[in-house]
Amino acid sequence: xxxxxxxxxxxxxxxxxxxxxxxxxxxxxxxxxxxxxxxxxxxxxxxxxxxxxxxxxxxxxxxxxxxxxxxxxxxxxxxxxxxxxxxxxxxxxxxxxxxxxxxxxxxxxxxxxxxxxxxxxxxxxxxxxxxxxxxxxxxxxxxxxxxxxxxxxxxxxxxxxxxxxxxxxxxxxxxxxxxxxxxxxxxxxxxxxxxxxxxxxxxxxxxxxxxxxxxxxxxxxxxxxxxxxxxxxxxxxxxxxxxxxxxxxxxxxxxxxxxxxxxxxxxxxxxxxxxxxxxxxxxxxxxxxxxxxxxxxxxxxxxxxxxxxxxxxxxxxxxxxxxxxxxxxxxxxxxxxxxxxxxxxxxxxxxxxxxxxxxxxxxxxxxxxxxxxxxxxxxxxxxxxxxxxxxxxxxxxxxxxxxxxxxxxxxxxxxxxxxxxxxxxxxxxxxxx
Length: 433
Prior knowledge:
single chain, 433 residues, mainly alpha
């Protein structure tokens, strides 16, 4: 719970004690000559023997002097008075509440506060404020089942039930009731999004944690995706791509392992050493040494590549990239004359990896239009990635939206869209500043 909430709670409890006037009419103050109908003691009175102990003026002076021992002595004596009326109990509990809240003694304050709430003597506004205060006290005492009980009562009796929703969720979570927490979080997050608000990072992380503890992979992935979209981090992106692509049934590792790594390289600031190596080796396998060189350069720059094997692999990629830079233009004519568009798609991606993304986009588009491709969806993935490299994010998103293939292609496209949209929001926020 935030320091703000704790401070607010303290102020609330301070306000329910001596600062609130009590109706302490005494028997000796009544007019003994009054008419018989008025001679009976009024319902809201305090007998003289109790009034002497709980006189508000005397109690206030003792509290101001911080003579809490004497206040406690008076309270103890008042508790020993037999046959107290409901109103006398109410007055006594208000005094106990003031003493307990001032001295941070929950053993005194909490039962007294509950008794005051159940007295039926509070205004509706006081009632809900006091219920919230008691719920928060139970929460701070880590009595989460009791906190849940009182937060739910607040929601039932208050006109602003959403005010304690976050605290209720956390009470469920901290009590170990992950199902209860998740049941509240999902609609709350959806409602925030429908209202155009970004769900809080804490809510999304609580949803993820509750789901993983329940082994609810679907809800966990939902939480990860929303975290990646709104609060991205390397850890979140690695997890969401792994669970949302590579671990899904039917993932085509031979075709899309390299595309998986391409997306990860774009989304994550620092990969594991083996991932840079794997991307480089797969790029060399497919005939894209410039891409291999960039992956290895990134790994060395990140400080995770340093061995002789890594250096040898980079030397190989450097040589291949230099050769491609000299000879790539010579392949344009033969790619254009080929019966299928595969050569044009490969040529376009090669240009895209050589920092000529605009040129690469054109060739990939020609290849897709020519047809005859073994895997048209993978070609569309490359087109979207080339458009993204060219800074044409809107066009890239439109391209990725057309990728529907299996083997992981559709899932990769989904997360490319998520990444590009997140980057667009981040760029807009930076510009606004």
